[in-house]
């Protein structure tokens, strides 16, 4: 986990600290959301869910011929997807290996 580097921004001239965290969340429906959490000292935490497709649609609608940026975004998303997929595969393999280890001595024949 990353170190806490303090506030992410300051609201107003008086310097009200603002903390922002982002996460990805999959709803029960399978929809992928970007979840943004805003924390302002002295106020309740605010969570904002934005479907990932809305972010992508915004990029597509506003690319204005910037194909280099589109390729860069697509490459970065692919790289991050590969990292997630690799971790999921390692977890699945580990779970199967542990299951096999405990099932090995329980042959019912």
> Termini, distance in Å?
47 Å
Number of domains: 2
The oligomeric state is single chain
Mean pLDDT: 87
Evaluate the radius of gyration: 21 Å
Q: What's the number of extended β-strand segments?
A: 4
Q: How helical, in percent, are the residues?
A: 40-55%
Order of helices and strands: EEEEHH
Largest sheet: 4 strands, antiparallel
Strand order of the largest sheet: 1-2-3-4
Which of globular, elongated, flat, extended, rod-shaped describes the shape?
extended
Uncertain residue segments: none
Beta-strand fraction estimate: 25-35%
Structural class: alpha+beta
Number of helices: 2
What does this structure look like?
- With 109 residues, the chain is an alpha+beta fold.
- The chain folds into two domains: 1-62, no CATH class; 64-103.
- It has two helices and four strands.
- The chain has helices at 52-61, 67-103, and strands at 9-11, 16-26, 32-40, 46-51.
- The longest helix is centred in the last third of the chain and has 37 residues, at 67-103.
- The mean pLDDT is 87.
Describe the secondary structure blueprint for this structure.
Elements: E1 9-11, E2 16-26, E3 32-40, E4 46-51, H1 52-61, H2 67-103
Antiparallel strand pairs: 1-2, 2-3, 3-4
Question: Which labels suit this protein?
Answer:
109 residues; 27% strand; alpha+beta; 2 helices; extended; 43% helix; 4-stranded antiparallel β-sheet
Quick structural summary:
The protein is an alpha+beta fold and 109 residues long. The protein is built from 2 helices and 4 strands, in the order E-E-E-E-H-H.
């Amino acid at each position: 986990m990353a170190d806490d580097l303090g506030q992410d921004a300051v609201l107003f001239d008086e310097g009200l600290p603002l903390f922002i965290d982002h996460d990805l969340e999959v709803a029960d429906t399978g929809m992928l959301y970007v979840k943004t959490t805003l924390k302002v000292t002295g106020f309740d935490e605010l969570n904002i869910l934005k479907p990932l497709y809305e972010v992508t649609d915004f990029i597509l609608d506003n690319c204005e011929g910037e194909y280099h940026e589109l390729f860069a975004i697509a490459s970065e998303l692919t790289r991050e997807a590969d990292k997630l997929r690799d971790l999921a595969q390692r977890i699945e393999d580990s779970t199967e290996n542990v299951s096999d280890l405990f099932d090995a001595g329980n042959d019912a024949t």
